[in-house]
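Known limitations

Structure tokens in this collection are predictions and should be treated as such. Users comparing against experimental data should check residue numbering before alignment. To illustrate the layout, the record for WD domain, G-beta repeat is reproduced below. The input appears on top and the generated tokens appear beneath it.
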Amino acid sequence: MLPLADLRLKASLFSAACLTMFVCLASSPAQSISFREQIAPILVQRCLACHGELKFQGEYQLHNFEAMLKAGESGEAAVTPGKPEESYLLQLISASDAGERMPKDVAPLSTAEIAAIRQWIAAGAVFDGDDPQAELVSSVVWKHPEPPAAYPRPLPITALAFRPDGQELAVSGLHEITIWNTADGVLARRIANAAERTYSLAYSADGKLLAAAGGTPGRLGEIKVFDPVEGKLLRHFGSMTDCAFDVAFSPDGAKLAGCGADHAVRIWDASTGKSELVLKDHSDWVMAVAWSPDGVRLATASRDRTCKVFDALSGQLLLTYSDHGQTVHDVAFSSDGARVVSAGADQRIRVWHANDQGYEDKEMKKKKREHIHEISGFGGEIFCLRMDQQRVFAGSADASVRQYDADKRNQLQLYAGHQEWVYALDYCPSARLLATGSLDGQIRIWNTAEVDENKRNIATFFAAPGYPSPAQNAPAGTEVKP
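Generated tokens:
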């Protein structure tokens, strides 16, 4: 069985075959040069790996704009505003000797890229970002290619989300988000300018905003908020050096939380985009975030085999749950906020106290008893969870979707029909609809209130615009393949 890291790589390679990488720079003296749009993308992709905040050579750091202007161990500044020929950065990237030229041991920058940097320095090396001390990658405005007009094959479904009224479903695509009618599985519209792959989607409670987290493995992660009707990009919440895996609005819609492969959890003001907290308590990828119902706490799941609960206002770590022992893929609060459910590579759903239930034994040693119980019965890793009241919905690598009573631990329903890993799901309480998406690109929508199992699956389709899907409106129980 492939680990989640391989799944993400598999999904990325699937999509990479369909596109050409982004950011083409062709500047002329008549054009103004934007640091955010034209210079920062070059530095992030070609220079940051060897000149970051923690790993850097020659004492040169480019992790933020302020660091770029400081001298390295040679005593020369990387950039001298207004004087390109005196700027050490330009000398290094344009050197004719391959042994001296930067970046080392890889293809040199293109003529157009070097010309753009030269022109930007000559114009005064102007910074047009918000904060010169912010991470360089967070200042970048990436230009993504257009999505394909028609998909030759479906892509793995890595994210989906119901609009709060349940009438539409947002689904991950290739450099886009697709919106589908839930009643019949018909494509409603397409939203472009998204990351290569989208790993999480979340609507605001009023349905007026759609947040997306995604990126390109090892290169870029970003979180954006769109108008889901017009498709307009409303706010870019900054980029990161690797994929963003999850995003979630606080219950009141005032804050946005995100996490990713850079080990960090971030909280922003949803209306202004201002960064409020950056939490770096995990030691590996942070796979998922979940708000408590009152918006006061934030639960996380990580590849470091732990879950954590933080105070969402102060950032204080409240507790660490470490009973899984393997990668934890998803996490969710109970409706009363008293419990947390989490699941992952150990093929179990674990239910635990959301507050530190610590006590001291006779020797006055601190003990913990967060664990309540676990739910087993899966034949593969559990990738996704949703919780409503005491009901837990879970999707697994065994191609199943199961519904359990979190208190009694008994299985209430089995939603069968997928032929591949079920990697994404969402539940809409108001409409009592469940949407599930699998590695082969198939979407199934279920009416959980339907008593007759043969009528429960109300729509099945492949979320690939232009692909002649044999699954469109397939009868319940029909096996369909791409």
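For this record: The radius of gyration is 24 Å. The helical segments are 4-16, 35-46, 65-68, 88-93, 111-122. Please report discrepancies through the issue tracker.
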